[in-house]
Amino acid sequence: MLLPEAAPAEQAPATPAPTAGSIEIDQVAGQDDRIAARLSDIFANVPSLSQVEVSVRQGVVTLTGTAPDDAALARAEAIAGGVEGVATVENDIERDVSVDIGEGIGGLGDRVEQITRMLPLVGLALLVALAISAIGYLLASFTGLWRRVATNTFLAELIASALRFVFVIAGIVIALDMIGAGALMGAVLGGAGVIGIALGFAMRDTVENYVASLMLSLRQPFRANDHVVIDQHEGRVIRLTSRATVLMTLEGNHLRIPNSTVFKAVIVNYTRNPQRRFDFELGVDADDDAEAARQLGRDTLASLDFVLDDPAPEVRIDRVGDSNVVLVFLGWIDQREADFFKARSRAIAASKRALEDGGFALPEPIYRLRFDQRTVPLPFENVGEGRAAPAQAVPPAPPRPPQKPVPAATDTHDIAPEDEIAKMVDEERANTPGQEKDLLDSGRPVE
Questions:
Q1: For residue 20, what is the DSSP state?
Q2: Residues of the chain with confidence (pLDDT) below 50
Q3: What backbone torsions phi and psi does residue 26 show, to the nearest 5 degrees?
Q4: Alpha helices in 68-224 (DSSP H)
């Protein structure tokens, strides 16, 4: 009958010393041989102790041979110490550190044979994965259907990409499940989730820009060639791509603004409403009749052909300045027929001439100097017997050159809208097929 197995230990514990009176004085004849035979039988039936040899002399058991690990060494010593008649145990067993090459090769051969038997199943799983992926690509290829379902081309492409991704992942999951790689499938999906979270944080700005591109393609805040101001960047829109909004500035330069910035920016669109108001200020002398100057200024603006009658032009008395009364001139133009900056320049020149011809002074800033006892005396140069030299007379200012006649107010030839930048934008949109795809859709209503 085998004794219960001892608990494994990292190091073989020493055999406890026998207690007082536990060792018999008289030994039964043949007892050492019986102990050795008994222990040999026990060790022969334990695979890990089959290489252990036993010798007994006067109740002292000596164990030699080899064992696979420290736990087997401790187990052999415990078994020997538990046999009746054993006084003590000398454990001289050594660990077996040799490698069984035949067993390793045999195990590798078994694995190769197992893989060979699984090859047909692996091939079938691969075919299933490819078939499911092909279905996804086939569905994604129906671009006409997705463009009818979606609101714009960008969203249609996003739906097609999502279909391809979902079907490819589904094919991989089903293939792994067919070959019984459930644990591998869970590890792959878990790793993909962790990697996705990490990439989400690392590419936060890129994801934000992509979502902004989608929202801008849905909202359509401007059209191609619209004159806009986006966060103090002014120009005409060339195209809206999946990453940026491309403008051509009024100087003819290309300007790319990230769509995440465009989506959050304040956008001024000058093209949306063709009517636009210009304004400027002129100041008349404080002693002049400000109301009469206001009436004259309004009539002057109304007489300009490029100024619209509806809304009507207006002149307001804004404030009293240091040496004048400031008038604010307001006029509306149609940007399809008149350039904003040219019209404003012509209106300023015509209004100034009308006020001066009407007898109104347009004074420059006037400063009044005061001299009294609290001021420092003016330095005079002494001449003769303490008398000051008379101040030299200031020479008169040279006469102003004659001014060139101002063209009549009805001449509007030179206020035609500037269209050089608009033509450059149209040419670039028509002659650059290699550029990124434009997400602006003229068929959709603008926001």
A1: T
A2: 1-12, 21, 383-384, 386, 388-389, 391, 394, 397, 400, 402-412
A3: -90, 135
A4: 70-81, 101-140, 143-149, 153-178, 182-202, 204-219
CA dihedral 426, 432, 434, 439 (to 10 degrees): 0
The pLDDT score that the predictor gives to residue 5 is 44
Q: Which residue has the tokens 């145990």?
A: 89
List CB contacts of 315: < 8 A, sequence separation 6 or more. 294, 295, 297, 298, 301, 327, 328, 329, 330
Q: Which residues contact 152 (CB under 8 A, 6 or more apart)?
A: 217, 218, 439, 441, 444
Residue 60 DSSP SS3: strand
At 12 the pLDDT is 47
Q: Do 212 and 262 contact (CB within 8 A), yes or no?
A: yes
Token representation of residue 28: 């039964």
pLDDT of residue 282: 94
Q: Which of 296, 295, 301 is nearest to 280 (CA)?
A: 301
- Please state, in angstroms and rounded to a whole number, the distance separating the CA atoms of residues 26 and 19: 17
pLDDT the model gives residue 383: 47
